[in-house]
Design goal:
Number of domains: 3
Shape: globular
Structural class: alpha+beta
Oligomer: single chain
């Protein structure tokens, strides 16, 4: 087994998706609509607090603004982003759904919100599955039911996005990733194959629309890029994993000589974009992240087309 395929089950979600949701710069964009005059001071206060990274205070300011201008799309959007920055996914999803109901909401915004909803559902479903099956243990029935619900809700959101934006590479990519979680949940071999077949078909659509659209390629949207998640220690039919060309072992040190496992998103160029520790000896997490960022791979392909890959890499602790 090569170094790319050695893995242990993740015990936490891959990473925070603050860069994947909505406006990623951390700086509020100019308002897309004229706010009610009474709401302007509260909006400005919320925007200033958001830029300062004081997200909890920003939420309160935005709620004050919504008391005066309840359908202000900018304020609802940045309430979503603020909740996402503090890690409150349930509230983030709730406010995303509220944004969908803004009177006169544009189809393009609805499609974007729905794909971001699907992304949050997928991330939570996948993280819950990895936690519930950590150490090779069989997931509990109640955990599986929760994960199934998240996958179903995420799939529903992605399908609604596709109905609005039928050439959205991101929406199809999320359908692909959700079906891959479903495949890992299935105990029935034939149902697992069906889930993988659906995932592969959605991925093909994602690749087709991504490669045909310069706008989507230039969007710098992490999950607008076709992506394959690889189960620990496994591969995927049609997927050719690029081999490691640079190993970053860094300065990860521990007294017990164990192994560090880091889950990574490997970009189209083979560079590690986002690493997150899966398992590591105490006090080695930061060093493990720094080491993982140094890894580089040959680009990976699915049926001959370039794709991103989510997988786990492992390396020994000195």
């Amino acid at each position: 087994m090569n170094s790319r395929m050695q893995a242990s089950a993740a015990v936490a979600a891959f990473f925070a998706f603050t860069l994947a949701l909505g406006t990623a710069s951390g700086r509020p964009e100019p308002l897309g609509q004229a706010p009610g005059k009474d709401a302007e001071p509260a909006i400005k206060k919320g925007d200033d607090l958001f830029k300062a990274g004081k997200y909890q205070d920003a939420i309160q300011a935005y709620k004050d603004a919504l008391g005066r201008d309840p359908n202000n799309d900018h304020v609802i959007e940045y309430t979503v982003l603020s909740y996402n920055r503090i890690g409150d996914r349930e509230q983030a999803r709730s406010w995303m759904k509220r944004r969908l109901e803004v009177p006169g909401q544009t189809p393009s915004i609805k499609a974007r919100v729905l794909t971001d909803l699907a992304l949050l559902y997928w991330d939570e479903a996948r993280g819950n599955f990895l936690r519930s099956s950590a150490g090779g243990e069989k997931a509990k029935a109640e955990d599986l039911a929760t994960i199934q619900k998240l996958v179903a809700d995420g799939t529903d959101s992605a399908q609604k996005a596709v109905a609005i934006a039928p050439r959205s590479a991101k929406a199809f990519n999320l359908l692909n990733l959700l079906d891959r979680v479903q495949a890992e949940l299935e105990q029935d071999g034939s149902k697992q194959k069906d889930s993988i077949a659906r995932a592969d078909e959605a991925l093909r659509h994602s690749i087709e629309f991504y490669e045909a659209s310069a706008q989507q390629q230039q969007a710098h949207d992490m999950f607008g890029v076709p992506t394959v998640s690889v189960p620990a220690g496994q591969g995927a039919e049609g997927l050719k994993l690029g081999q490691a060309k640079k190993l970053g072992l860094g300065n990860v040190r521990s007294s017990n000589g164990s192994t560090v496992a880091v889950e990574v998103l490997v970009g189209l160029d083979g560079k590690v974009l986002y690493p997150r520790v899966v398992s590591a000896p105490a006090k080695t997490g930061d060093a493990a992240i720094a080491a993982a960022k140094q890894w580089e791979f040959e680009p990976s392909t699915f049926e001959g087309h370039a794709v991103q890959v989510i997988e786990t890499i492992s390396f020994p602790v000195k």
